Amino acid sequence: MKKNDLILIFGILILALFFYGGMHLWQKSHTDDSTYVEVKIDGEIYGTYPLDEDIRERIESADGGYNILVISDGKASIEEANCPDKICVNHRAIHYSGDSVVCLPHKLTVTVVGGQEDEIDASTN
Questions:
Q1: Per-residue pLDDT of the chain (125 residues; tens, 9 = 90+)
Q2: Which residues pair with 101 in a beta bridge?
Q3: DSSP E strands: which ranges in the chain?
Q4: What is the pTM of this model?
């Protein structure tokens, strides 16, 4: 390998890194920064609700069950449910991207989409 070959290779690598970094910044500046919760029942989207609005929504499942979703102060939680174990009701309020509340008897999931990610590993929560 000659000295000119090494300079060419390093130049190409620098351009590639610059291009990748520029594209990453462009994509970040052109994405929607809204944070919302996505509610699914049995894997199907039931609805989406913004975290920046206070909401109280009764969510009916096909088996006659219900969960009451409350969004307040940028956090979402299940306030009430007629499931037998009430794990979803006792779960902490969620607000970080990827956080979820699950009600297995009603096949319900509430997941935060977008927004800030939790700095702590999920296994420590």
A1: 678 888 888 888 877 766 666 655 544 444 455 899 999 999 999 999 999 999 999 999 888 899 999 999 999 999 999 999 999 999 999 999 999 999 999 999 999 998 766 555 555 55
A2: 110
A3: 36-41, 44-50, 55-60, 66-72, 75-81, 100-103, 108-113
A4: 0.67
